[in-house]
């Protein structure tokens, strides 16, 4: 088949890779010279540990697909480094112990480590904590490098054409196929179109499907200069237990009741996630804002909180912050849905709204689309 994919983020790129691997021809459109949305404004984490029960199978499959992609495209920087969620209070430790007692604990790759075992696993963590919940299955990719690397690999097939700085304006279908008109005056004819609009829920997406059952979420993050030593795992703090659905249960309810978040963390719905980039710097975040219109500027107080928490866990000052940014992703309103996937018109599909799981689930979502459409 000849397939047009609209959107150059992780979902669009993963769908392109899946289609090429299945023997199809792909024409790929991205409205920016390079993807600039949530795909490149994230941690690059492939996050198994916190996923809800209904997400786990897809997450584990996606983890396999990332490893397969890394074998084909080493430049994406995939590393199966695992993660450590550092627990600083008895209530946080109780949540981890409850999770470890569940039947799916081994499938998630969980192990509870004492402080000495934590420092053996990740010697850079010389700070203050009671224990660490280790997930051996978590991983990371280089979010700002992965997409160009995947596209370069796809181009070697001879069946992939990428058009950056090209905005799809209109997508129609009739008995002869699908027709995509772009802002360069070109119409591309194909058998199928897959539109992955990211957080751009107006414009083409609204023209095709009306108001999608999605909301947008804004986050703030930052990056430091090189740490000067290796952070062997990704790192999360106890506030992440409140955010990720895998930790829901009686112990978490008791934690919420007895251990309120710091006011700044509660106001910005914060957790700490930290991952080291290949260049040695740390990507640190994040906040969550749900009510639009979003601010156009970034607030400094959340950054100061994240810096303080990171330094407590590392037991040292972090390097200078060299970049700060905000990003927006789209998220399905139904928490039981991994993504919105629907046929807007004949042979024109929209796939959007994985929430903060786009990097984690992208390859598996593309595989699901291919299976559903019989590619």
From TrEMBL:
Q: Which UniProt keywords apply?
A: Flavoprotein, Oxidoreductase
- Which superkingdom heads the taxonomic lineage of this protein's source? Bacteria
Q: Does the keyword Transcription apply?
A: no
Is Flavoprotein tagged as a keyword?
yes
Which positions fall inside the FAD dependent oxidoreductase domain? 2-371
**A Pfam family this chain is assigned to:** DAO
What cofactor does its activity depend on? Answer: FAD
What family, per the record?
A: Belongs to the DadA oxidoreductase family.
Designated name of the protein:
TIGR03364 family FAD-dependent oxidoreductase
């Amino acid at each position: 088949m000849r397939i047009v994919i609209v959107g150059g983020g992780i979902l669009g790129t993963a769908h392109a890779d899946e289609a090429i691997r299945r023997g199809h021809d792909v024409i790929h459109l991205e409205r920016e010279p390079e993807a600039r949305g949530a795909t490149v404004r994230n941690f690059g984490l492939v996050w198994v540990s916190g996923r809800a029960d209904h997400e786990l199978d897809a997450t584990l499959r996606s983890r396999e697909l990332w490893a397969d992609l890394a074998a084909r495209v080493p430049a994406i920087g995939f590393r199966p480094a695992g993660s450590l969620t550092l627990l600083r209070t008895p209530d946080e430790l109780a949540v981890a112990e409850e999770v470890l007692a569940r039947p799916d604990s081994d499938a998630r790759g969980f192990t509870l480590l004492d402080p000495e075992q934590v420092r053996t696993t990740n010697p850079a963590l010389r700070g203050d904590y009671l224990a660490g919940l280790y997930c051996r299955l978590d991983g990371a990719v280089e979010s700002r490098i992965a997409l160009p690397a995947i596209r370069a690999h796809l181009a070697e097939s001879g069946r992939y054409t990428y058009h950056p700085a090209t905005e799809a304006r209109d997508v129609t279908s009739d008995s002869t196929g699908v027709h995509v008109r772009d802002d360069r005056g070109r119409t591309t004819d194909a058998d199928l179109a897959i539109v992955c609009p990211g957080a751009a829920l107006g414009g083409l997406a609204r023209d095709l499907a009306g108001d999608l059952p999605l909301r947008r979420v804004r986050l703030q993050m930052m990056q430091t200069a090189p740490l000067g030593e290796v952070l062997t795992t990704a790192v999360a703090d106890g506030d992440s237990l409140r955010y990720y659905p895998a930790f829901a249960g009686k112990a978490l309810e008791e934690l919420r009741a007895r251990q309120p978040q710091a006011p700044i963390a509660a106001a910005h719905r914060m957790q700490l996630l930290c991952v080291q980039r290949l260049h040695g710097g740390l990507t640190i975040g994040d906040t969550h804002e749900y009510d639009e219109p979003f601010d156009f500027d970034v607030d400094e107080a959340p950054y100061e909180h994240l810096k303080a928490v990171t330094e407590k866990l590392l037991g040292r000052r972090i390097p200078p912050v060299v970049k700060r940014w905000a990003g927006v992703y789209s998220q399905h309103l139904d928490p039981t849905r991994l993504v919105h996937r629907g046929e807007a018109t004949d042979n024109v599909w929209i796939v959007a709204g994985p929430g903060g799981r786009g990097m984690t689930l992208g390859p598996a979502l593309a595989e699901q689309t291919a299976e559903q459409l019989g590619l």
